[in-house]
Amino acid sequence: MTQLLRKQLTRFAYALNRFSRLYSHLPAGFEPESWKSMEGLVRCSANHVPLSPIGFLERSSKAYRDNTSLVYGSLRYTWAETRQRCLKLASALTQLGISRGDVVATFSYNLPEIYELHFAVPMAGGVLCTLNARHDAAMVSALLSHSEAKVIFVDHHLLETARGALDLLARTDTKPPILILLTDSDSSSSSFNSNTYDYESLLTTGTEKFEIRRPNSEWDPISINYTSGTTSRPKAVVYSHRGAYLNSIATVLLHGMGAMPVYLWTVPMFHCNGWCLPWGAAAQGATNICIRKVSPKAIFDNIFLHKVTHLGAAPTVLSMIVNSPASDRRPLPHKVEIMTGGSPPPPQILAKMEELGFQVNHIYGLTETYGPATNCVCKPEWDPLPPDERYRMKARQGLKHLGMEEMEVKDPVTMESVPADGKTIGEVMFRGNTVMCGYLKDSKATKEAFEGGWFRSGDLGVKHDDGYIQLKDRKKDVIISGGENVSTVEVETVLYSHEAVLEAAVVARPDNHWGETPCAFVTLKEGFDDVNADQIIGFCRDRLPHYMAPKTVVFEDLPKTSTGKIQKFILREKAKAMGSLS
């Protein structure tokens, strides 16, 4: 064998090994750029442009030019004005030094400015990072440091917390971001300093002739979303332009949003970028109604005032609506589509919502799947079923939406799909273009999440014979009592059927004899203060196997994230501190 041939074989072996490593995670039969085998085909700028939701605003500014785009109190903008403002804001951001890949953070409630930033930041080539408005100064400081944000836009109601976060950053080697204040028209600007700008004043420094910095690749990051922290410290989930584009369209379709809907912003835009609907609403030329604080009265008033057609809400908000006093409600002017997800909704809540005139669309997803990933597609054959059975069917998490390639319930060890028998529990897993790019600065967590070529959700569920999935629990929430697995979701569903229960969450309490026993934390409705723990336990024992019934009941308000998810890790610590019941 000649030396030259040896070199060629060595190079070939190296190339083959590199190819194998690069594409080992791809499906069998995949050939990169296999279209090249067909003569006459070419990929060029005429037929291949990176997908990005930025283009939705461009279209709406023409198709719905004079239609109302944003409403906040007496403030109104048209789609033409929104595009103009976003261009000027993108221009102003570049003048502040924002370059491709730089992170721009927000710390605010649902204001029109946050909607505009969903377009302006990626138009400037930046990456949007929307921080939870309920975080304290220490958490905001940690997330600003981790994300390396260059600029932060702050709701003036949250200025004290933001300043506290910047003070904490100043004590480290991290350079604090430039602060842009979001003020109402009647707010004072006396608190400004040399490193603080006013949003509207900043806007005047930009030009509407700004040339948009479109993504070089559709896999370029468009946003960072920190997980809600219901189980542990938040992780930084990175979304791509491609994923945001596809999930926006998929969410609009499953929400039944036709042209020119009226969307009420009750889902925080800092949660999964508002389920990708800042972009999706623009695609349909929606009128976006922004409200700072969510309450049943605000929801009914805005539906009545603005003829709202669509909104989204966590099951906790649905519970607030159905249990609101009659004085806070108004008759709905028409059927209102409401999309709910975040945790499994009790069937009883779904039934009461539809009695009030809402059409509930049940979705399921995670921060890592850009928000919605499935929905429970309702079938006409369910209509004749008894109400309890019908709403039990509707409470399932359903099927993957059109943007997700695959969803399965699998054995997390063997990676085999579980039988569709509605009994065998496995882990819900996803694969497709609307799964995150990964966790920022956490390669270990990214690798673990994608182990086996699927995204592992950490949610446990079953698959029914019609293909619909149903969640049973989070891995960390399953209670093992005397060797038996207890689904906290099943126990909570029974608790919600009690007439006195407003909210409920079940966690494990340590037990020297049984290992663990179910511990229920319950919030009672007004007027039911005389209900005691023994009554709740007896109610559950009449409807569940006795090992599944709570052995402990604690009455208190439940801790929640800003999106309405109950923070079970806090309750687990409380139950642990109680010690053994036996």
Automatic annotation (TrEMBL):
Gene3D superfamilies for this protein: 3.30.300.30, N-terminal domain of ligase-like
GO MF annotation, one: medium-chain fatty acid-CoA ligase activity
Record keyword Nucleotide-binding present: yes
Pfam families: AMP-binding, AMP-binding_C
Domain AMP-binding enzyme C-terminal as annotated: residue spans: 490-565
Subcellular location: Cytoplasm, Cytosol
Keyword annotations: ATP-binding, Cytoplasm, Ligase, Nucleotide-binding
Cleaved signal peptide residues: none
GO cellular component, one term: cytosol
Cross-referenced CDD domains: ttLC_FACS_AEE21_like
Domain AMP-dependent synthetase/ligase: 57-440
PANTHER family per record: ACYL-ACTIVATING ENZYME, ISOVALERATE--COA LIGASE AAE2
Sequence similarity: Belongs to the ATP-dependent AMP-binding enzyme family.
Protein name: Propionate-CoA ligase
